[in-house]
Amino acid sequence: MSDGMRELLLCPPDYYGIEYEINPWMSVARGAQAAVAQRQWKQLHATLSELHCEVHLIPPQPRLPDMVFTANAGLTVGRKFIPSNFRHKERAGEQLFFSNWMEERGYEVHWLPDNLYFEGEGDALFGGDALFCGYKFRSDIQSHRALADMLGCLAISVELVDPRFYHLDTCFCPLPDGGAFWFPSAFDEYGQRAIREHVTDLIDVLPEESMHFSCNAVIIERDIVLPEGAPKLVTQLQDRGYRCHELPMSEFIKAGGACKCLTMFMPQREKC
Ligand code: ARG
Q1: pTM attached to this predicted model
Q2: DSSP state of 63
Q3: What is the pLDDT of residues 88-123, one digit of tens each?
Q4: DSSP secondary structure letters along 52-83
């Protein structure tokens, strides 16, 4: 990271589509509209580029339609990259493309044991002094200990209980001032308590706004890029001094993803 410029990884949606169903949002019968998806993705790319970010693109691969969701490539801290071990065989083919690409750019690639599922930044977000890690639907809780050891960071495991919010980044979004916005009922009681203990100033997102993937936002300092459909949340964020950029994301929500799922930070943090 030079002069505070954030580096991000995106993957163009050339081969994007709904070709299998691995979460409750996906319907092969309904599909997604390719031309609209292209437009929405380009708007995300343009918005992030205008926010003083350096956006890197990994070449998309045929037959890997979910490769657009680069948050699931892995987790980057400083120059270390920990690739995902995908739970579903449909996405496992992405692993080598992402790890090779990161290695070619000089990142140190550290693999988790391959019997531990882990889906990258989608399930691992820094908030305050801790790395919050979601588990159950995709990542295994045992992967968090291994992750914490590799990175030397404090990992706090939180269980996800609603299959529609199967990755942490679908229901939890830490803010740079130590706060966060989240959808509390996506977590069990223990997880809710852990988050409340570690995060000051939590904004609860309404159920109907959560359903628009409102927590799936990319935060670039005071700018927040999020899917449209959450007027209440946007007002609360603006009251705290954030600028919100609301984008149409319908075609990606059909795969169970939106702005944040389509973005990986390089790195998410310089160090733990
Ligand atoms: N269809 C993809 C999957 O189910 C969507 C991934 C969304 N990514 C995320 N970070 N929440 O794996």
Answers
A1: 0.97
A2: T
A3: 999 999 999 999 999 999 999 999 999 999 999 999
A4: TEEEEEPPP-TT-GGGG-GGGTEEEETTEEEE
To test the pocket of ligand 1, the residue of 66, 98, 171 to mutate (highest count of ligand atoms within 8 Å of its CB) is: 66
- Which residues approach ligand 1 with their CB closer than 6 A? 22-23, 26, 66, 69, 71-72, 91, 122, 167, 169-170, 255-257, 261
Q: 167, 171, 212, 215: which one is catalytic?
A: 167
Q: pLDDT confidence of 3, banded at 50, 70, 90?
A: low
CB distance 192 to 233 below 8 Å: no
pLDDT in tens, 155-199: 999 999 999 999 999 999 999 999 999 999 999 999 999 999 999
Q: Count of CB atoms within 10 A of residue 110's CB? A: 17
C-alpha 261 to ligand 1 mean position (Å)? 6
167 is an active site residue: yes
CATH architecture of 7-265: 5-stranded Propeller (3.75)
What pLDDT is stored for residue 4 in this prediction?
72
What separation in Å is there between the alpha carbon of 271 and the centre of ligand 1?
Answer: 26
Q: Check 53, 133, 173, 261 and give the catalytic one.
A: 261
In this structure, are residues 43 and 227 in contact, taking their beta carbons and an 8 Å threshold? no
pLDDT digits (tens, 9 = 90+) for 135-155: 999 999 999 999 999 999 999
The neighbour count for residue 134, using CB atoms within 10 Å, is 29
Name the residue ranges covered by the structural domains of the chain.
Answer: 7-265
| Closest atom of ligand 1 relative to the 119 alpha carbon | 10
